[in-house]
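Hi Y.,

Following your request, here is the sequence exactly as I used it, all 441 residues.
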Amino acid sequence: MATDYAPLTREHRPRGHRVPAVLRAPFEARAWLEFGYVLLGLPIAIVTFVVAVTTVSLGAGLLVTFVGIPVLAAGFLLLRAFGALERGRARVMLGLDVASPRPERGAKPGAMSWIGAVLKSGVSWRHLVYSIVHLPWAVFSFSVAVVFWTFGLMASAYPLYWWTISGRDGQRGIQLYADMGHQIFLSNPAEIALTCAVGLVVLMACPWITRALVSVDRLAVASLLGASALDHRVTELESDRGVVVDTAAADLRRIERDLHDGAQARLVALAMDLGLAKEKLAQDPEAAAKMVDEAHGEVKVALQELRDLARGIHPAVLTDRGLDAALSAVASRCTVPVQVEVDLPARPAAAIEGIAYFTVSELLQNVSKHAQATRASVDVWETGGRLMLQVGDDGRGGADTTRGSGLAGLGERLDAVDGVLVVDSPVGGPTTITAELPWRG
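Below is the corresponding structure, written out as tokens. Let me know if you'd prefer a different format.
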């Protein structure tokens, strides 16, 4: 990712709100959405709890007749449906986007294999746990939220409706206390004002109390109703596999194009020249010798192109002597002086070594083509079981992975092997690009 260090000007700095957050919170949509979430949570929790207890109890009781197995599976499916409802409710009312769990697939075709997968799935049991523990929490949060919001609204609005309850059967306002000899009403102006002030304080606190309550719901929904870490990893690996396949296909097309347009075309021309030389050998030996000499030059050029192509696939120096020698060879072909420092305790895995080589090679090509630099550096080291690469130059900077450049594709290829690419390239330079790869030695 690119890092922009340009300071914010006065015109671009976000302006603070004139009204403090504590005063405007009760009037914001977020507060009422969160309060609505708490209100809806109780009836949904009751229904979900009843479904969970009924289906699990019925299924467990019928296990001896085998009917309990599909009953349990059906109960888990219902709980998953309620889980989808809860994720949607959290998305709309809390702004919490939780990824849906992956659908269950049986190891073999057939209903029984699928039912077994549902029963063994950790997702199903997490939905069951949520359905059971959510009810007591929903009762508590509903009670707290309703009491505080009701008191805050009623007390703060007391001056508006005080007159409607005064003067009725000796009632002078809200009665706080009464016994055989004493009655205490909130009736004089000071008491009415104090009641209103207390109500306003409570009303100002209501959004924050509600927010604290729904934070528990956020945690429960994210941890119990979302995709598991394994699901996230599978999705990530599927995405990485697509990147690897696309990259491999692009490399194969590049190799085919280089062979067709380069060495293959030269070899075809060479074969034609040698054929002509063979025909002229008896009639004009000098012309034939000249054509053979030209063909010899073409052979040298074709061999050099094949060597370059082989180096682009996997250089022999990398296999034989490791990253230090291979990166020194790459640096020698750069258009600017490059200082190379490699400090590795051993050689990493061959695949990681190849990725590191091509990463540095591509970054140095960018330095030659775009950086307008006078010098560059390559540092390679190992730390914490990770292979670190850093390429820097004193060029014009402005490199960015978000503009469709080669850096974006390079970052995707590194991500496919659990690597990371970090670009620090402010306009005007210098540029420092750091790559982190797993060691896997």
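Residues 229-280 form the longest helix (52 residues).

Thanks again,
Q.
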